[in-house]
Amino acid sequence: MDLTVLNERDFYSYLQEENKKTFLKMIDKFENYIAPIMRSKGYKRINQAERTVLFSFGEITFSRSRWKKDGETKIPVDEKLGLVSHTRFSKEVLYQLTKLANYMPYRKVAEVMELLNQVYVTKDSVLSAIQKAGELLKEKEDYRILSPEVEQEKIKPEVLYIEGDGVWVKSSQEQEGNRSKELSHFIVHTGCQENNRRTLKDKLEVISINYKEAKDKILDLIHNHFDITSETVIVTNSDGGSGYTPKAFKELAVAFSPKKHIHFWDAFHVNQLIKRIFNPFPPELKTLAFEGVKKQDKETVSLALDTAEALIDTAEKLEPFQRLKRQILRNFDYTHRPEHQGLSSQGIGVMESQHRKITYRMKNKGMYWSDKGADTISQTILLDHEGKLRDLFFGEWREDYEIIQERSLYPGSYFLRVDSHKIYELPKVNLPQKTVQIEE
After folding, report:
1. One matching Pfam family, short form (predicted)?
2. Which member of 144, 170, 352, 419 has the lowest number of beta carbons within 10 Å of its beta carbon?
């Protein structure tokens, strides 16, 4: 002991070394505890094998016993530590790397891990963690589909709000000359509530690089969580892009047979489109168009468009103008305001703000994404935002999923639940007494 100022990093390294010693003692103690249990179950110890694993408290090499019975090999220490096979990272480290990757580039994740935990990883280590998260996401989706439906009380909303839109991110894989990829994003909720800040009630959210998968999943979530009756009003809102047209949302709503379906062309995008159309022209025309939309007067909007069209003097400008003109007139009925339908505007047009958590990480940092990487990161961002990311790595669903996998070796055994105490008898059949000859 002396008067030298404490170096916290050195002291932290000392604590890590002490933690490693404590950890190795725990392993030895567990080995002594589990050995008689394994023998009582008929297992034989075959050898001792070393393994190096990076834990949140440092990298440790330890030795553990391997046991075998009837061709089945078990490593109790690995099971005790919850280690994933064929990886050098603990599940806690995988979780931490994935969580940090939702906020920063992979290289930065490595720097933060070294700064805070004095744990050294590379950007490739972070990529491995994201790939593992992608595998878990697929397994959890399989579990959701294969597990028996659990009876739960469904929400009975008076009004159910559904919105959908695409998020474009830069792709590392050029496809047909296009270096961008669309993520399909859907949200469903039952309205707004005021706490310390305005939030969406009963919100469910889906994102996928595959449009059909995203749409199918949001349909499943609505079916499983909401009781849509003949008294329910379904309100949908979108920018009208490909896959998010009024027709697409009508097909979605019809599946639930609601009392009424009301679709809105997102007000923000309508305003942006009007500005885009009329900015080259006298401001009076733009004002006239906005007035027509506000009063739901299609003739006024058409007058403004016709007047602007008459001012165009080149064919190159005319064709794109006419295309936008047809778009706004064709979808004009969906520019009505929620108040015209007896609805509050709160809770409608929320998609842009819901995109933000995705675009902040994936779009605004000049990042390029593979299809799998974009799909995984976008989904882990949603899970993290909902407070469910840890469940992906440590949830009870993992054990249930392993049981399903084991029972899948016997097709139908998991789903055909038969009362073992009930006796089933085949009906008696009167067989013919004489031999029946079949003529060819």
Report:
1. UPF0236
2. 419
Domain-embedded: residue 60? yes
- Are 85 and 200 contained in the same domain? no
Domain extent for 206: 159-389
- Tokens 């379904």, located at residue: 234
What is the distance between the alpha carbons of residues 425 and 43, in angstroms, rounded to a whole number? 41
pLDDT tens, the chain, 440 aa long: 778 899 999 999 999 999 999 999 999 999 999 999 999 999 999 999 999 999 998 999 999 999 999 999 999 999 999 998 888 999 999 999 999 999 999 999 999 999 998 889 999 999 999 999 999 999 999 998 888 777 789 999 999 999 999 999 998 877 666 678 999 999 999 999 887 788 999 999 999 999 999 999 999 999 999 999 999 999 999 999 999 999 999 999 999 999 999 999 999 999 999 999 999 999 999 999 999 999 999 999 999 999 999 999 888 999 999 999 999 999 999 999 998 888 988 889 999 999 999 999 998 767 899 999 999 999 999 999 999 999 999 999 988 888 888 776 555 544 444 333 344 444 455 545 544 443 43
Number of structural domains in the chain: 2
